[in-house]
Amino acid sequence: MSLEYWLKGEIPQPVKATLITDVKVLAGKIKQHKKPVVLLGSELYSLERLAGSDIVAIVADIANAVNADLTTSNSGIVQRLDSMGFKRYRVEFPMEFAQKLAKHSNYDLAMFIGFQYHYEWLLLNYLKHYAYKHLNTLSLEPYGHPNATWTMPSQPIPLWYKNLLALVEVLKT
């Protein structure tokens, strides 16, 4: 019996996210892309409070491991990236950036973390409909997203945090 995400998304066909539970498989999916980008939302602060750790630094480690760019519209995250010496980021609103991604950008994987559930749902839904030919999407959130190409399963924050750290380690090897 295979594990599959239970939501079908907002379209009548059964196009839905593939649930990836193994961190090594997830890392393999990320590594197979040539030009990934990570979109950071302002809810990273909430995730940091819940996990008790610096999630921005962990996301920067993921980006460094796969040579990914970061995109955010949050000035606090920009300041933290600057203080870490991370320079491969752009400041742009998520929906505007999603529209650029849909218009055949050079990115082939968009990873999402730190967004409110409903907002990320809309971003992923838009990309699922308008960028499906050239872009894969991945939700790194502690809860699954049916509109992504791939998603991590819904997990308690401590288990999600442990898996995020394991993902960084596997990507660095």
Compact overview of the structure:
Helix 4 links the parallel strand 3 and strand 4 (89-91). The protein has helices at 23-31, 44-51, 55-66, 75-84, 94-102, 117-130, 157-172, and strands at 18-19, 36-40, 69-72, 89-91, 109-113, 136-139, 150-151.
Overall 3D form: globular
How many strands in all? Answer: 7
Termini separation (Å)? 31 Å
- The assigned CATH architecture is 3-Layer(aba) Sandwich
Question: What order do the SSEs take from the amino end to the carboxyl end, as H and E?
Answer: EHEHHEHEHEHEEH
Total count of domains: 1
**Major sheet strand order:** 1-7-6-5-2-3-4
Tally of alpha and pi helices:
7
Strand content: 5-15%
Category by helix and strand content: alpha/beta
CATH topology label? Rossmann fold
Low-confidence stretches: none
Q: Mean of residue pLDDT?
A: 88
Q: What is the CATH top level name?
A: Alpha Beta
Overall helicity: 40-55%
Radius of gyration (Å): 15 Å
The largest sheet, given as strand count, sense and whether it forms a barrel, is: 7 strands, parallel
User: Superfamily at the CATH H level?
Assistant: TPP-binding domain
Describe this structure as you would to a colleague.
The chain is built from seven helices and seven strands. With 173 residues, it is of the alpha/beta class. It has a single domain (21-172), classed as 3-Layer(aba) Sandwich (Rossmann fold). The chain has a seven-stranded parallel sheet with strand order 1-7-6-5-2-3-4, sandwiched between helices. Helix 4 links the parallel strand 3 (69-72) and strand 4. Helix 3 runs parallel beside helix 7 (157-172).
